[in-house]
Amino acid sequence: MGLDRWTAFAAQHRRTMILLALVSTFAGVALVLDRPKGTLLEWFAAPLLAVGGGVFAYVVWPRATAETQMRDSLASRFLHFVTLRGRLQSAFPALGVAIIVVDLAYNMLLSATPALQTEDTIVLLAAATLLGYQFVPRRFARERDFVLVFFIALNLILVVPLLVARAYYANFEHSVDVYSWVALAPEAGAVLNVVGVANTVHPVSGFTAPGITFQLRNAGPQVTVVITTACSGIYSFGIFAAAFVAFVGTENERFTKRVWALLALGLLTAYVANVLRMVIIVLVGYYADTTGTNLQNMLIAHSYAGWIIFLVWIAFFWGIILKFLPVNRSEELGVVRPQIHVARCGICASALNIALPATRCSCGTYYHRVCFTAEGRCLGCGRTEMAESPPATR
């Protein structure tokens, strides 16, 4: 298939391209954050990220439609709010450096090990995003906002609760496995009892995490599976949830009942998939292992099942959800229809009109003259000179 035919196919099947981009991108992110070390899967992270990012940049949000269809999304308005109408964007590099310093200091002074763990990777990726945010060209604004919102959500879901739990229990040297105790082990144990695998959930000496004890089906010994934070699958849940929030926020202009319903459904199904993952791992050991196998089958399932279930579930769930997400038909077919875009002030975000004199910076950002005079510089590039006054709409 030639390049022209491929481009035409991609334009006509935008929902399929969205699904491909989501699945490949976040499979790659999952492998980066929680890769199965020592297996072939860990080498797939970079190719998956490259494919997903390329499809997002050149098919899902193509440059040909960016200017005519540029709009204020939930994500852009959120970032506009938290940066005080863009005033704090110039401080992003300094904030990124500060986050890196704080994370390294935490590892050296409070953590059980100075080595970088999964939570450190999440924090450092967010810091790198802040460092590079202002260097991303304006035409990639949606991708840039998507990545930043994704890492903000990922830290709020995975890192902040862990730090709060460690502070609450006054235990900074060990992982506090609250998620495993409250929302995973009891539920997985209940499902296993329903399907005929008798088990008990209990504390395990030497661990802060719970254990699930069961007996192998082939009259084998009792086996105890300790569900630590690293083995709980919470990283897959967090990646899916953060991706869902970032994509819905980037694709929608306001919260509606449908958006709230999709967000709730996405978080719920990600949680159910994680419980299902743990159940399947135990079932593999229950049915496939014997005294002679030394639990090798369950260990293989542990190494691969979490990532595979996560990937299959994303593909299944997003395949259904995209049937209900509104997609602009002209955008899906690659047809660019003329639209009137109301220029907005880069400081107050209000629409420009003939009642208030406006101006434009050399970088293309619009301002009310009174807003620019009060600020004294362009928030986007820092210039102090302005171009000719623009029309109210274009």
Could you characterize what this model shows?
This protein is mainly alpha-helical and 394 residues long. Among the domains are: 3-174 and 233-258, no CATH class; 340-394, 2-Layer Sandwich (Herpes Virus-1). 58% of the residues lie in helices and 6% in strands. The chain is built from 14 helices and six strands. The strands form two sheets. The protein has a three-stranded antiparallel β-sheet, covered by helices on one side. The protein has a three-stranded antiparallel β-sheet with strand order 5-4-6. Helix 2 (14-34) packs antiparallel against helix 10 (234-251) and helix 11 (257-288) packs antiparallel against helix 12.
Topology record:
Layout: H1 3-12, H2 14-34, H3 45-60, H4 63-69, H5 74-82, H6 92-109, H7 118-132, H8 141-168, H9 178-194, E1 199-203, E2 210-215, E3 222-226, H10 234-251, H11 257-288, H12 296-321, H13 329-332, E4 358-361, E5 366-368, H14 369-375, E6 386-387
Strand order of the largest sheet: 1-2-3
| CA-CA gap between termini | 38 Å
Structural class category = mainly alpha
- Computed Rg: 25 Å
Q: How helix-rich are the residues, as a percent range?
A: 55-70%
Q: What fraction strand?
A: 5-15%
Number of strands: 6
List keywords for this structure.
394 residues, mainly alpha, Herpes Virus-1, three-stranded antiparallel sheet, 14 helices, 6 strands, 58% helix, elongated
